[in-house]
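Holo model, magnesium ion. Inputs:
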Amino acid sequence: MSTTVMAATAADGSQQYSPTTRGRVISVLSPKGGVGKTTVATNLAVGLAKEEPGSTVLVDLDVQFGDVASALNLTPQHSLADTVQGSAGTDTMVLKTFLTQHETGLHVICGVDSPAAADGVTAEDVSRLLATLATEFRYVVVDTAPGLLEHTLAALDETTDPLFVTTMDVPGVRGLRKELQTLDDLGMFIGSRYIALNLTGQRSGMSIADVEATIGTGVDLQLPRSKATPTSVNLGVPLLQSGVRDPMTKKLHTLVDHYTGRRDRRLRGRHIGARR
Ligand SMILES: Nc1ncnc2c1ncn2[C@@H]1O[C@H](COP(=O)(O)OP(=O)(O)OP(=O)(O)O)[C@@H](O)[C@H]1O
Ligand SMILES: [Mg+2]
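Output:
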């Protein structure tokens, strides 16, 4: 469980947590590919890093075909494989030298160069890495590969806040229902999950009510199809970095506010003001 205890800021800008304090591990998940996980993960991470400098690390856990580096226009010197091998796997100070810095202040662990290079990364490596990062950062955002393969399951063991993304199509929505059911059967994450419906606004023959009825729970956020999104991905500049005015940008801010609690604070402030 995360805590809101303030942490000291280290020389490299990251925030040092005491061993008893853990940051939130927000894993972006979906049963299907191409639904917007990397788009959501990179924007959320950039938004959190801009909101609270030094607070956030983004981990590309799409172990074979991760594209976080491309989505952030980074040319990393080190990859996920480097962060779990040798002394980086056991020494937090060494691990921190393997993080790639993004211009927004976000720290990033980029994916490996080729699927073969992912062979050395085990599920235990993933659990240990995320557990360590959660002692160093307030927010650990994890981008995942589609489905519930071993690296994602290992990440789920450390996850405090699962963020599910789906599009409005029958295979995607049915896949999400099965994924949620599987996690429910395992007794995982009841109450703390968040569901984002991406690419809304296009005619798909499904309504939001249809989606909610199928998955058996409410949708927390609707992300509209937007022209600016593919452009931002191709340029490697997330919408929350460029700040381009777009309906998707607005909704991504809402997502960031959900995790920082900023929206709730604003609403409380308005409420108190109204009573005066
Ligand atoms: N709201 C949106 N509007 C328009 N295009 C979008 C939106 N969200 C995502 N896309 C586009 O959809 C494509 C897939 O997005 P993304 O790479 O984030 O999906 P993914 O779930 O990470 O895929 P994979 O499972 O292959 O990793 C990208 O080209 C992205 O620009
Ligand atoms: Mg992806």
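The pocket of adenosine-5'-triphosphate (ligand 1) is lined by residues 30, 33-39, 62, 146, 198-199, 223, 225-226, 229-230, 233, 248 (CB under 6 Å). The radius of gyration is 18 Å.
Archived with the compound record.
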